[in-house]
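Entry 0007
Protein: LysR family transcriptional regulator
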Amino acid sequence: MLDIQCLKDFLVLARLKHFGRAAEQCHVSTSGLSRRIQALEIWLGAPVLVRSANGIELTEVGQRLLPISADAVTALESVRKAVHAEVAGRREQIRFTAPHIMSGLFFTSWFPLLSEPFQNTRFSVTSDHLGACIAGLDAGEDDFLVFLCDEARGVLGKVQASLDRTAYTMLTLGTERLTPVSAPDARGMPLHSLDVGTTTSVSLLGYDEACSLSWALDANLVNTTGLPMFRRRHENSVADGVRSMALAGLGVAWLPKRMVEADLQAGRLVAASSRQLDISMDVTIARRTGALSDSAERLWEYLLRTNAAQSVAPRPTVSAA
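Output (structure tokens):
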């Protein structure tokens, strides 16, 4: 089945005629963008571009696909915006967009805290990869973006330029930590230990290049000394998939602490190191600086006045970023 994101990426690439610049605008690596174009070509059954001395040129098939793709994307986005507007008009609504991990990690515990002050408000969450979430925020399809930022700025380093173009404001709602875990052996010790020394390679379970947790992990590992060499043979686009691979004993994974708390308590997973190798993350909410709906503005003022994320440990604060 063809993903509309492939058509969007194709349009960007056709306009910029450069894989590197197109990948940056699409918030994906060059190899990730190449895979998406290949998926489009497989679905279509023919190449849509060729590399030449002048850069990238569209094939005859690509030229035929270009206006159709533009019309299809415009039509689909128009329908989605119209549906969003209709739903918002039926009842008071605040629209959030967030990477997939935030649905189970944050919103399920945060929304109940808002139920009393916002009794007549409908909260909706659209989940996607962070680049698409920022695009939704920029287009006015969503009121707020909620995502995780690491201290090494691996995430903000990738997306801050895009957020700057939306003229945004951010608040910190709380904290989370990515912690390295492994399945245990028969003695309860990690099957994949980070304490074995730099001469022994360890299987690292990674995130897909489009996943913002991958950006945080890579930025923080660069500055961490005393780690073994890593073999990256397995990856997944969502944290749940990485957790499943860790439970299967395929390697060590940096996973959100709240996600694996029950696994650690039950002994299904254990700490992969005796050292403190957790990666600190801020739960961050962003909005455009322009006017939002009355209900969304009320929520923003509420966040400025109160601590509305008490379920996030340690005790969170709401502060200007």
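Curator remark: Residues 308-321 have pLDDT under 50 and may be disordered. Residues 200 and 228 are 6 Å apart (CA to CA).
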